[in-house]
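As a warm-up, study this chain.
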Amino acid sequence: MTLAQPQTLSTKELVKGLIFHNYAERKPEEGLCIWRMAHKSKRFTIVFTAEMRMRGAGFKDVLSPEFDYWDGYRVILPKGLIEWAEIPAGMPLPRGLGNHVLDIPGVEHENCPFCRSQPKWRSGGFGGYTPLNHTDFHLVCCKWFNGERNRSHDPVALAAARNAAIIG
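Now compare it with the structure written out below.
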């Protein structure tokens, strides 16, 4: 008799199973959360991690996500639907400090032809910005496909070009 091996879900599959809450209706507690909202370019939706933290807001401290903006009078959040979810126990998150892109819903990409794994999104921008404001995106999975030279301002176009190169 053979025991079944536990199946490991990809980050994309884990994100699909999350229960997202409307930020306007329910606020998360302090700590790291998963956020889903339109990227600043408004061309795609992005799912990323960011801290919910206490911040100074004039003469008082308020609990607010780190992608907020203080204009000197009030804390301002990006316009549009802001959704958040708790990080499930055991969900693997990328190592290192900072915020990470977990998924770009609707953007599918093929497994790596070298290591056969699903590449992870990486993004970059100016220091201090969350992925919500990042301008460069690339896919990373193994030493054969690190994606550093394969950057794009448009992750939708990047995934389509990569898929076309892999599939033919």
